[in-house]
Amino acid sequence: MSSDESQRFGPESMSRSVLRGFDPARFETARTEKGLSRSDLARMAKIKTVETIRRWEKGLAAPQIDVLGRAITCLGVAPDSVILTEPAERYLSDWRHLTLQTQPELAASAGLSTNLVAQLELGLGTLTDDRAERLATALGITSEEVRSSYERVRARPAGTPA
């Protein structure tokens, strides 16, 4: 399995690629209901190995959003059917994941730098009204939801992934 396709769960993986709310069982159910084997899905979604999908389904690894996006597109399911986060508890990165965007993609669509998006997702940097509006447009949410998500990530307990 390649490191660009998944990250291990646990404290050692506190990076921007941790995917909060990914539900392995729902993902596996979506695959089996579509009638696809792991091998078929890996081939169709251009995922390097079948092992990657097995590890996702067993909860041993979390997918990176671009790879998960290819998989759920093949499965014909919405992101929120396998990424479960309560709207009132979402961080900025959760909203990005639900739109299947990478940080560079969100940055480009919002007209911001990737570094700034990364900083804001960590609760760092300054969220101006202009930045909130740009992110809201790119994420398909309100600027108030952007501000609330930013404040939640700033207030999260130490050691909690953003």
TrEMBL record:
Residues 30-82, 102-146 form the HTH cro/C1-type domain. Keywords: DNA-binding. GO terms for molecular function: DNA binding. Gene3D superfamilies: lambda repressor-like DNA-binding domains. The keyword Nucleotidyltransferase does not apply. It comes from the Bacteria. SUPFAM superfamilies: lambda repressor-like DNA-binding domains (SSF47413). SMART domains: HTH_XRE. The keyword DNA-binding applies. PROSITE patterns: HTH_CROC1 (PS50943). Pfam families: HTH_3. This is Putative Xre family DNA-binding protein. It comes from Gordonia effusa NBRC 100432.
